[in-house]
């Protein structure tokens, strides 16, 4: 298995381009689903990395701002093909989603409504549930390295279901493992969580930028990409503060429509920026907004990836990463439970989830085909049910 950055040969680069373009078209369901599909693709099928290495990369993405699944694409591209892979892995995951959102933004402006996508999601999301559950099960066997981290993972799951803050749970999980393993005082752990959690308290606090042009648009999205931790719900808070309240460029309805488009299309949820950019300044605005919000992720991954061996080699940092890894799995499990409650609503959706789970367990079928099968199933059910 590959464990470091591979030489950037033509075959490796072409493989990175092909697989991430395909994921950019088929990765529905949000970051937890994207990460599950990447685990299926790169651990189970292609064997680029081990489950342990995959978990460490996931832990690093949780320690830096930005969209986790996109940053995983950047990390994995680097592992497979070096610096060209780092750039192309992220770009090829983003571009298909950006183009889909751009087309939907054009339709939205032209016709004043969102194209119907509910029946596609009706069939896709139950399949996504099965993919995530299978990934959590496999990654859990690598992450649960004893009763301590198992207890931390269970506690994070329970607190997440009770409405706990994602960032606090991630860093809190890491701090607890450090505290217990190394005998550090609770005050030191609490201080660590406070310091590392500080970026989350700055949500929407950027200073106003004068003017109402492309420069303001780019700077606003660059700021969001550089400081945003957490889920798509945190992204909503940023966008509403900047584009509805501070700049007055969008209405609340337009913002909700933009977020809906980001949720129902494949690829990164951050392509909501593409939709907002188009509403504000047409195609140029869409492209500029997309580049600006994703650019910090490439920088953060490039800076953090070489640090991973040092982090894993340090007793304290390694313990912290173990805690973050298991906390991330707890959060994924909580998201999966919430998705399942809203997605598996009848016999048909339950059957789709069970069939997908069975195929994942018994075959090496690519999860992308299962997602496409779910979409076809949802549309077929609509045609039959009327």
Structure description:
There is one protein chain. By secondary structure, the chain is an all-alpha fold. The chain has 16 helices and no strands. Helix 9 packs across helix 12 and helix 11 crosses helix 12 (272-304). The protein is globular. The protein starts with 9 loop residues before the first helix and ends with a helix.
Fold topology:
Elements: H1 10-26, H2 31-45, H3 51-63, H4 68-111, H5 118-143, H6 147-161, H7 166-182, H8 186-196, H9 214-227, H10 232-246, H11 252-264, H12 272-304, H13 308-313, H14 315-343, H15 347-362, H16 367-385
Sum this structure up briefly:
The protein has helices spanning 10-26, 31-45, 51-63, 68-111, 118-143, 147-161, 166-182, 186-196, 214-227, 232-246, 252-264, 272-304, 308-313, 315-343, 347-362, 367-385.
What features would you highlight for this structure?
mainly alpha, 386 residues
Q: Residue-averaged pLDDT, rounded?
A: 79
Would you identify the regions where 5 or more consecutive residues have pLDDT less than 50? 185-212
Q: Any idea what the radius of gyration is?
A: 20 Å
Q: What is the tally of beta strands?
A: 0
């Amino acid at each position: 298995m590959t464990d470091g950055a591979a030489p950037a040969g033509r075959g490796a680069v072409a493989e990175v381009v092909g697989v991430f373009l395909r994921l950019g078209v088929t990765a529905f369901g949000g970051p937890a689903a994207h990460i599950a599909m990447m685990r299926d693709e790169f651990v189970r099928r292609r064997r680029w990395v081990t489950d342990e290495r995959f978990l460490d990369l996931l832990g690093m993405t949780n320690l830096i701002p930005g969209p986790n699944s996109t940053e995983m694409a950047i990390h994995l591209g680097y592992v497979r093909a070096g610096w060209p892979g780092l750039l192309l892995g992220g770009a090829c995951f983003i571009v298909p989603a950006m183009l889909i959102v751009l087309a939907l933004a054009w339709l939205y402006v032209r016709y004043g409504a969102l194209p119907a996508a509910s029946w596609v999601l009706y069939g896709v999301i139950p399949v996504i549930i099965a993919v995530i559950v299978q990934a959590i099960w496999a990654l859990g066997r690598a992450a649960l390295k004893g009763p301590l981290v198992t207890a931390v993972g269970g506690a994070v799951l329970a607190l997440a279901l009770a409405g706990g803050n994602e960032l606090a749970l991630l860093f809190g999980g890491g701090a607890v493992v450090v505290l217990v393993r190394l005998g550090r005082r609770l005050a030191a752990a609490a201080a660590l969580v406070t310091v590392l959690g500080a970026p989350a308290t700055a949500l929407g606090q950027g200073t106003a930028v004068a003017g109402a042009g492309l420069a303001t648009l780019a700077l606003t999205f660059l700021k969001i990409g550089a400081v945003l931790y957490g889920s798509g719900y945190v992204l909503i808070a940023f966008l509403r503060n900047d584009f509805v309240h501070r700049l007055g460029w969008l209405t609340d309805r337009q913002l909700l429509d933009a977020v809906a488009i980001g949720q129902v299309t494949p690829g990164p949820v951050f392509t909501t920026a593409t939709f907002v950019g188009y509403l504000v300044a047409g195609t140029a605005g869409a492209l500029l907004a997309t580049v600006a919000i994703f650019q910090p992720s490439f920088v953060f991954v490039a800076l953090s990836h070489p640090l991973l061996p040092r982090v894993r080699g340090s007793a304290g940092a390694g313990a912290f990463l173990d805690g973050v890894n298991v906390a991330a799995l707890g959060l994924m499990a909580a998201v999966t439970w919430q998705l399942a409650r809203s997605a598996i609503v009848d016999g048909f959706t339950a059957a789709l989830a069970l069939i997908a789970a069975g195929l994942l367990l018994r075959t090496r079928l690519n999860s992308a085909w299962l997602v496409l099968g779910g979409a076809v199933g949802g549309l077929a059910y609509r045609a039959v049910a009327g």
